[in-house]
Write a sequence for this structure.
């Protein structure tokens, strides 16, 4: 060991360079991200979770949901199209410009109905040139982005996930294995809380070839005395029962977990990952949560 | 050959030089990897993700609104102050809040009456598009709330020009709002329909 110092320095340098690359650089890169406030709507992004959903996040973690479910959506590419919202009054000019741009339109024929989409799947530059040609002729047009990727085609989100999506999560449960589907957009894909309760209790009842284990211990099982409880699980109008014919009532843990699952939404474009504007669905609030409890599922 | 049976034996490494080929390969690899990072790491910016390659690209692909900024400002003000009663689609609420979409008051030739109406509020019955409205509550005065004339004017421009509601009246300038504000500055009471009729439309 006459080169002990050299050996030590070599190992140190190797360790430091990986620490620098895997710990320090990401910290410098993402450590200063802050939630953003939209000046126009007053909403913050990411939007804070309700208390129940925050408790549900702990249940999600305890039960190891992240071992089989990811919360990250990939995006493979993006392209542009041009949408015309108004052809204006200069029909002669617009008609000739449109004939040069669109194969399906011949000059002189009546202008198509708005909003009219053309030049789909082009790059930004081409889309902007098309917009310019149209607006020079007096039409109102703009370039629209569209994103692609197998995750996005499955409806797992309208865009890729970015760092600021996870800003409010103390521990980020990205997951790495997709034994079950990605959950980043679950609240948007299926906002029926009753479905989620039944699925957690008996996955095979709602998804025939599901491989998810049953989380029956998140539910109370009680014998039916006459009339079943108001909040006993029902599916397709029929009472859900366990093997002994007892009614099934979600515990607070199950309610919190479902509140968390419904709070997972990936339906907002962000600066980092622009996406087409979506028609906003109502966010399930605490009140809506109560209304949509299993009791009202009949 | 070393004899390891000797108890005080200590193996030593000689100072054999590192092969030149190894150093060259390392330098080439290092160069290639920096090239790769240059092209794909997006400048290590927190706002740049695949498939984008730099912050400039992300900025360039942001969706561009086709609204002018005054209209957008007015729309934001509408969302804050007006949409609670008149709804975000301007349809109002039957029996309570008259519509703004397609309303003859909003789409009047000039903004004279609508500025006054919003500035001081309105009490009592009102005829909108020939329909009698008797709102149960009076409309509150917004002049003291929206003290910035430009914001007020943007709001007026928005409600008069929102094409999604079918409105297409002329825009309103901050000067017009300023003039009306100066004129009605001493007024506290809300307007009534009859009083507004005495004000010229333009």
């Amino acid at each position: 060991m006459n080169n002990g110092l050299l050996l030590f320095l070599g190992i140190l340098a190797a360790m430091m360079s990986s620490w620098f690359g895997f710990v320090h650089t990401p910290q410098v890169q993402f450590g200063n991200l802050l939630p953003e406030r939209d000046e126009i709507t007053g909403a913050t992004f990411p939007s804070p979770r309700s208390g129940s959903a925050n408790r549900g996040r702990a249940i999600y973690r305890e039960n190891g949901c992240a071992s089989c479910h990811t919360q990250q959506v990939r995006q493979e590419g993006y392209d542009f199209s041009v949408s015309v919202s108004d052809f204006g009054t200069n029909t002669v000019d617009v008609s000739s410009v449109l004939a040069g741009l669109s194969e399906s339109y011949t000059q002189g024929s009546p202008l198509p109905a708005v909003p009219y989409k053309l030049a789909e799947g082009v790059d930004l530059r081409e889309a902007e040139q098309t917009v310019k040609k149209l607006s020079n002729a007096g039409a109102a047009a703009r370039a629209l982005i569209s994103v692609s990727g197998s995750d996005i085609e499955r409806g797992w989100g309208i865009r890729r996930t970015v760092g600021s999506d996870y800003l409010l999560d103390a521990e980020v449960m990205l997951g790495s294995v997709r034994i079950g589907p990605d959950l980043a957009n679950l609240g948007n894909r299926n906002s029926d809380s009753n479905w989620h309760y039944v699925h957690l209790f008996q996955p095979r009842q709602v998804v025939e070839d599901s491989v998810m284990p049953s989380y029956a211990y998140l539910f109370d099982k009680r014998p039916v005395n006459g009339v079943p409880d108001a909040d006993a699980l029902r599916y397709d109008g029929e009472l859900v029962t366990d093997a002994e014919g007892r009614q099934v009532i979600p515990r607070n843990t199950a309610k919190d977990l479902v509140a968390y699952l419904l709070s997972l939404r990936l339906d907002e474009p962000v600066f980092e990952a622009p996406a087409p504007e979506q028609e906003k669905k109502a966010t399930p609030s605490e009140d809506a949560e109560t209304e949509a409890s299993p009791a009202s599922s009949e | 050959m070393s004899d390891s049976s000797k108890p005080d034996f200590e193996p030593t490494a000689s100072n054999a030089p590192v092969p030149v080929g190894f150093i060259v390969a390392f330098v080439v690899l290092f160069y290639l990897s920096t090239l790769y990072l240059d092209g794909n790491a997006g400048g290590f910016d927190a706002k740049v993700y695949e498939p984008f390659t730099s912050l400039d690209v992300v900025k360039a692909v942001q969706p561009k609104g086709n609204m002018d900024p005054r209209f957008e400002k007015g729309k934001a003000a509408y969302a804050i102050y007006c949409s609670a009663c008149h709804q975000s689609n301007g349809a109002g609420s039957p029996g309570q809040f008259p519509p703004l979409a397609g309303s003859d008051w909003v789409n009047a030739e000039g903004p004279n009456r609508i500025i006054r109406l919003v500035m001081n509020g309105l009490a009592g019955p009102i005829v909108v598009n020939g329909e009698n409205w008797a709102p149960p509550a009076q409309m509150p005065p917004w002049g003291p709330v929206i003290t910035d004339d430009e914001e007020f004017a943007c709001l007026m421009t928005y409600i008069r020009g929102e094409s999604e509601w079918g409105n297409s009246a002329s825009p309103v300038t901050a000067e017009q709002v300023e003039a009306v504000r100066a004129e009605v500055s001493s007024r506290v009471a809300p307007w009534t329909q009859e009083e507004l009729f005495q004000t010229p439309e333009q």
